[in-house]
Specification:
single chain, mainly alpha, 11 helices
Length: about 260
């Protein structure tokens, strides 16, 4: 007798549960829990990481992310407007910039501004400035495309209505179009902040003083100095989650609000 669709779904569910239980049991039996405890969850040895990982690492990660986002947002808006410009040269420049910085690794940009530019031009920049420029230039390429999509999503009738009232083009863009575009792209912009938070860890390629350490640096140094295995990295990762999880929740809230507005 052939099974009904409900019976087949129930059998499929039981099979999946069985596979999951067997896999978890096999993993539990094969795991050396003593080694895991001393190499991954050895929280008794991470005391020296505190309070510096919080007061220095977390603070610097937030500062680097904020500075990178400010530069990225400013540059991204300029690039988005250039890409929508009626002047072809602006569009070509913006397209070239976006394609280049989206195509090369962010680490390469850090190395270029941390070591290449000082050697080539004989300038000395502090680490904060290097991070701000590197993160900002990479972020601006991604934010530009996000903002461009937002600007194009604003109904053209609103711009035309503003112009019909005698409002200059630039004022209509600043007062009406750009604010609405930002509302549309708030969720992806929030995700961009999350990416910047993680990319700030690339600062490790630069020579840092103790006061310039960010979270990943504390985690890396803890591996060699504390003898706690991967536990320092686990702690550093937890601090990243303190930043990124609220941002993810915020992005979902923006998405929900945007979906309700469209209904």
């Amino acid at each position: 007798m052939a099974m009904t669709a409900r019976q087949r779904a129930r059998v499929s569910l039981y099979v999946q549960i069985g596979i999951f239980v067997v896999a978890v049991a096999a993993l539990a039996l094969a795991t050396d829990w003593k080694t895991i405890g001393t190499s991954v969850f050895n929280f008794g040895k991470i005391g020296p990481m505190f309070p510096d990982i919080f007061l220095v690492g977390l603070k610097n990660t937030l500062i680097y992310t904020f500075l990178g986002f400010v530069v990225g947002l400013s540059g991204g808006l300029l690039l988005a407007l250039m890409k929508l410009s009626s002047f072809p040269l602006y569009r070509w420049i913006a397209t070239g910039y976006i394609e280049f910085f989206r195509g090369v690794p962010a680490l390469l940009v850090f190395i270029a501004f941390g070591y290449g530019v000082p050697l080539a031009f004989g300038v000395q920049w502090n680490v904060t400035l290097i991070v701000m420029i590197s993160l900002g230039m990479v972020a601006s390429a991604y934010i530009a495309e996000t903002l461009r999509a937002g600007l194009q999503a604003v109904p053209k009738g609103q711009l035309e209505a503003a112009r019909s009232l005698g409002m200059p083009q630039w004022r209509a863009m600043v007062s009406i179009v750009i604010p609405q575009a930002f509302k549309i792209v708030l969720p992806p912009l929030t995700n961009e902040v999350i990416l910047l938070t993680k990319d700030s860890s690339l600062i490790y390629v630069l020579g840092l003083t103790a006061s310039q350490y960010e979270l990943t640096k504390f985690g890396r140094d803890g591996i060699s100095s504390l003898g706690a295995g991967l536990t320092p990295l686990l702690v550093a990762g937890a601090f990243y989650l303190v930043i990124t999880i609220p941002l993810s929740l915020l992005a979902r809230k923006f998405e929900s609000r945007s979906a309700r507005t469209k209904r």
